Amino acid sequence: MYIRHHRSDDLYPMAIIMAACDLRDPLAMIYRRSSLNNTNNTNTSTNNTNVYDPKRAARIWTDHVKSTKRSIELKVLQPGCICQVIVLDPEDHDTATLQDGVTDPRTTNPKITDPRVINTRDVVGFAIFKRCGVSSRALGWQAEGRRLPTRVRSFVVHSSLEVSRSWDSSISISRLAQYIQRLYTAPPRAALGIPDERWDIEAIYVLPHHQRRGFGTTLLRWVIDRAVEEGVQMCVWSTEAGRALYLNAGFTEVGTIDFTDMREGNDGGQGMVRIMTWRLPN
């Protein structure tokens, strides 16, 4: 296993990885429509049943991956954003195949369901980090994103993303708007002691089938090394799923954003976003 800088042909595998993780993320499912348990209501004179519709599920999954791919591409084009991917060596395939399935919650055993038979080649995880600030080091990381060709490409991708949302069957537009509005309720960075010069962790995703094998820690180590080298802090907005990873790496929680009321039932903290920071050891 090793990490490297992402290439353009990694975008589709990265989108599949993020979409597969979204299906298990209570916060993402606030505005996403699941392709795992999609049903059509079938009414008869004698009963009312929910029948799994594989064609509709396939369409939702395809739209999910396409919109996720556009979102990732837009993110990595922004000034200061760096994307690293986890790549498996041949010997890493001892217990996994290149074709990873998504667990269907309607059964007790994992299985590969048609809409979600995914092939990410040897890429099983990725991370996006962003260098913020105006120092010479920060501007060096931001240089590629400020080039005119990159800015033009970013505009094209952003336009495509906005237009395609109107027919994206995997997204609830109204719920997405509520979700984004809630994000803006976060406390100001200055009030939380978050400096302008820092590394932000925009995303860390590992295929569910390959989680708990240290891949997330390996990706996080890359940005920790950069922060130590440059003498700056780090910041992340983490869901409950990633909280332990960051706590183990020395992050501390400085704030929260509560989405609990946008979810059904008592989710045991799954509806919270944790704002966490990392400081250089004394």
Structural features, described:
- Helix 1 packs across helix 2.
- This protein is 35% helix and 23% strand.
- It has a seven-stranded mixed β-sheet with strand order 1-4-7-8-9-11-10.
- About 12% of the residues have low confidence.
- It contains seven helices and eleven strands.
- It starts with a strand and ends with a strand.
- It has a single domain, classed as Gcn5-related N-acetyltransferase (GNAT) (Aminopeptidase, 3-Layer(aba) Sandwich).
Blueprint of the fold:
Blueprint: E1 2-5, H1 11-22, E2 39-43, E3 48-52, H2 54-76, E4 81-87, E5 99-100, E6 118-119, E7 123-132, H3 136-146, H4 148-164, H5 173-183, E8 198-206, H6 215-230, E9 233-238, H7 240-248, E10 252-258, E11 272-278
Helix pairs in contact: 1-2, 2-4
Q: Number of DSSP helices?
A: 7
Proportion of helical residues: 25-40%
CATH architectural label: 3-Layer(aba) Sandwich
| Cα shape | globular
Low-confidence stretches: 39-49, 94-117
For the biggest sheet, the summary is:
7 strands, mixed
Record the strand order, biggest sheet: 1-4-7-8-9-11-10
Give the name of the CATH superfamily.
Gcn5-related N-acetyltransferase (GNAT)
Query: Any idea of the CATH topology?
Result: Aminopeptidase
Approximately how much beta-strand content do the residues carry? Answer: 15-25%
The CATH class, by name, is Alpha Beta
Radius of gyration, in Å, reads 20 Å
Order of helices and strands: EHEEHEEEEHHHEHEHEE
Distance between the termini: 32 Å
